[in-house]
Write a structure and sequence with these properties.
It is a single chain. The chain is built from twelve helices and five strands. By secondary structure, it is an alpha+beta fold. It folds into three domains: 45 residues; 74 residues, no CATH class; 90 residues, no CATH class. Helix 6 packs across helix 7. It is globular. It comes from Acaulospora morrowiae. This is 6285_t:CDS:1.
């Protein structure tokens, strides 16, 4: 029996293949790819429920007349993805709405406990949820984020984008703070330069928007030619000056 060059070569090749197939880094990359693909498919599946809302149990009437739009959604998804809806659509809140007076009539309530007023009633086991302080245009983007986990933000003016950020903060949707802020900073530069103080005041109201807030502070420090009005000086966060 001989262990000549050919045998040694074959053994080396075998060891090389074994090493490659058992490389932990390779397995980890494959695992990450599978997770990403799985999450992408999950996102696609959930979006179908948004586009064709079979089995919905919440009808949302969003906006203030004449700009009002209806959306149909599922309370389980809304509550899982939004801290605001987690509280607003809790059993306790819905039970208050459906207690009734024994006559079988629909009972309606106006709630103010969650910082912004909303109106809720029930009809045929569907919760009717009315909210005037969010625009339909902003809510459409946010509902897509709630269901699908991601959406491209386009077609919004700078003020409409601020409406979107305001609603995002109020509804307590998490995980997209950085993306939404960076998208705004990258695509609305001219408006930001002309309205830096307004934007600073806006971002100071929301702890989650620290990227925008820090950007404003940096710009205010670097641009000494910005003209301050007395009201502007008193509204800037003094801790950051």
């Amino acid at each position: 029996f001989s262990s000549g060059p050919n045998l040694k070569t074959n053994m080396a090749e075998t060891n090389s293949v074994t090493s490659t197939t058992t490389d932990p880094r390779s397995l980890e990359l494959n695992k990450e790819d599978l997770v990403i693909k799985s999450l992408y498919k999950l996102s696609e599946n959930l979006i179908t429920f948004l586009n064709k809302p079979e089995g919905y149990d919440v009808k949302l009437e969003i906006g203030k007349a004449p700009d009002v739009e209806e959306f149909y959604a599922h309370s389980a998804i809304l509550r899982a993805r939004s801290t605001y809806f987690h509280n607003a659509l809790s059993k306790e809140m819905i039970n208050k709405t459906t207690e009734g007076d024994g006559s079988g009539s629909t009972v309606s309530y106006i709630y103010t406990a969650l910082s912004k007023t909303f109106f809720m009633s029930t009809e045929d086991n569907v919760v009717i949820f009315k909210k005037e302080n969010i625009t339909p245009k902003a809510f459409k983007f946010l509902l897509t984020i709630i269901y699908g986990g991601f959406t491209k933000i386009d077609g919004l003016t700078s003020l409409e984008y601020l409406d979107l950020l305001e609603a995002y903060g109020e509804l307590g949707i998490q995980g997209f703070d950085e993306y939404l802020q960076q998208s705004f900073l990258e695509n609305h530069g001219e408006w930001i330069r002309d309205n830096l103080l307004l934007l600073e005041r806006f971002s100071s109201k929301h702890e989650a928007f620290r990227d925008i807030r820090n950007f404003c502070y940096d710009q205010l420090c670097q641009n000494s030619d910005i003209v301050f009005k007395p009201s502007d000086v008193t509204t800037i966060n003094k801790d950051k000056i």
